[in-house]
Amino acid sequence: MKKSSLLFFALLFLSVTTSFGQLNEKKNQFYLEIGGQSIVYSFNYERQLTKSKTLYFRAGFGVIPLVAFEAPIGFDFLIKTHNKNNYIDLGLTSNFFINSNTDNFNQYNLIPSIGFRRIIQNSAILRLGIAGISTTSSGFIPLVGISIGKLF
Question: DSSP secondary structure string, the chain?
């Protein structure tokens, strides 16, 4: 009787702690990106799409002062490193631009990126990356970026 009671309480404890662990898993991120895929700066929301924390969807809003508004929309693919909080971040973002002088939709660009992402104490993120944009007038322009944000 004691063994079965002990087994019952152990299983109950494990199921409760597992449930709470799943409730605490944070799948959303909000961050400020300076440079990089956002070109100047943008505010972004990102959502984890897979249980394995490898695929994320992002959408944001940014400004290129006196020139345009931008809407970055894209995907990031994360590859774990030897440290469980560090990732290699491969991204592909499409930026849609609206000229701030005419309110016309002007263009969009596909911007690939590679970078580093660190999750800090399961509550904050730090991203460092290199991206590139190809234009008809200026050719290839490398972009360096940094992002800081919050998991929720």
Answer: -HHHHHHHHHHHHHHHHHHHHHHT---EEEEEEEEGGGTTEEEEEEEE-STTS-EEEEEEEEEETTTEEEEEEEEEEEEE-SSTTEEEEEEEEEEEEEETTT--EEEEEEEEEEEEEEEETTTEEEEEEEEEEEETTTEEEEEEEEEEEEE-
Q: Which residue has the tokens 């494990």?
A: 14
- The Cα 95–Cα 126 span in angstroms is 21
Rounded to two decimals, what is the model's pTM? Answer: 0.78
Quote the pLDDT of residue 138.
Answer: 77
- pLDDT tens digits, one per residue of 97-116: 888 777 666 677 889 999 99
